[in-house]
Inverse folding.
């Protein structure tokens, strides 16, 4: 059964991918485990109350496990799976492709759309810079193509960074002509490179995403800033004002100091990239929550990224009826 089809009260016995594991303590001091399990259609929290040490050895992030238990939707805590047994999954009990999440567009289509967008950049200095990053022979491109966009909240899967950055850049390109004074080439280049620090900030093992040591020590924004700055230093004659405009987009794209940007957006281009990036991330959270929504439910549980629940009724149900 796919995770998105789990229904309140149903018994589960199948292979799932361990996406995260956390040890917690009850009020009496006893340990229990909170897991995040999933397949390509979504993720579900799971609780282990007994045999904690044994289960912890089995449930390493990125491993595929065979689980049995009951799925329920708690009125306060939302969907969760109470596990009765856990063991390593055996060969033949699962298909890894069915367990790994991915973008709605294929990687080859995303790449084709990216290269089409790159051809529209007119500034020769920005074209050279983008060529270093996105050339088919570039080691950076090989990383960028496969990297996730996040650990949890949006596009947390292979090719997620490409999907997210391309979507932001396409939207920036479309809207840049609507408002006067925006340098489209700078804005689109900044959109494509704004999250490039995530190449070093995240590590992927067997489909499980975690923060790297560099990600924890420096953060993805400084890592992206220094990567792009070093690339620019290799380009003879790159205009200082162009470097300044581009690096400011990277440094400010989270929008505020409390959200991790060392500076706030101070240019039209940086403001546009921040706004579209924020929109892309929030809509990506809706995609994630819809995949996790139990069958028959219209509201998700509380989501930290959105600051509330997400609603999937109304227009969506009407579209389903029309399709039927």
């Amino acid at each position: 059964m796919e995770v998105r089809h789990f229904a309140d009260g149903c018994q589960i016995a199948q292979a799932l991918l361990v996406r995260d594991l956390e040890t917690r303590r009850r009020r009496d001091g006893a340990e229990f485990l909170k897991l995040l399990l999933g397949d390509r259609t979504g993720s579900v929290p799971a609780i282990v109350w007994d045999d904690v040490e044994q289960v912890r050895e089995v449930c390493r992030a990125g491993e595929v496990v065979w689980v049995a238990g009951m799925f329920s939707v708690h009125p306060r805590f939302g969907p969760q799976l109470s596990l009765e047994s856990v063991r390593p999954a055996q060969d033949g009990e699962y298909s890894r492709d069915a367990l790994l999440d991915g973008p709605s567009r294929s990687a080859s289509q995303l790449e084709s759309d990216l290269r089409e967008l790159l051809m529209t950049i007119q500034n020769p200095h920005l074209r050279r810079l983008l060529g270093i990053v996105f050339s088919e022979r570039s080691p950076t491109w090989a990383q960028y193509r496969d990297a996730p966009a996040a650990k949890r909240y949006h596009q947390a899967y292979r090719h997620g960074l490409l999907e997210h950055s391309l979507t932001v850049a396409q939207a920036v390109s479309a809207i840049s002509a609507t408002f006067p004074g925006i340098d489209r080439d700078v804005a689109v280049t900044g959109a494509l490179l704004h999250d490039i620090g995530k190449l070093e900030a995240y590590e992927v093992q067997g489909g499980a995403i975690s923060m790297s040591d560099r990600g924890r020590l420096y953060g993805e924004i400084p890592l992206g800033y220094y990567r792009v700055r070093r690339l620019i230093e290799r380009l003879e004659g790159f205009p200082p004002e162009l470097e300044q405009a581009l690096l400011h987009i990277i440094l400010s794209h989270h929008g505020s100091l409390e959200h991790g940007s060392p500076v706030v957006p101070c240019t039209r281009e940086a403001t546009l990239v921040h706004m579209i990036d924020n929109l892309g991330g929030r809509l990506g959270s809706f995609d994630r929550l819809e995949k996790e929504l139990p069958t028959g439910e219209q509201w998700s549980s509380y989501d930290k990224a959105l600051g509330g629940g997400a609603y999937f009724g109304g227009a969506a149900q009407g579209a389903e009826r029309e399709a039927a």
Notes: The chain is about 45% helix and 20% strand. Residues 318-324 have pLDDT under 50 and may be disordered. The chain has two domains: 3-98, 101-285. The CA atoms of residues 248 and 270 lie 7 Å apart.
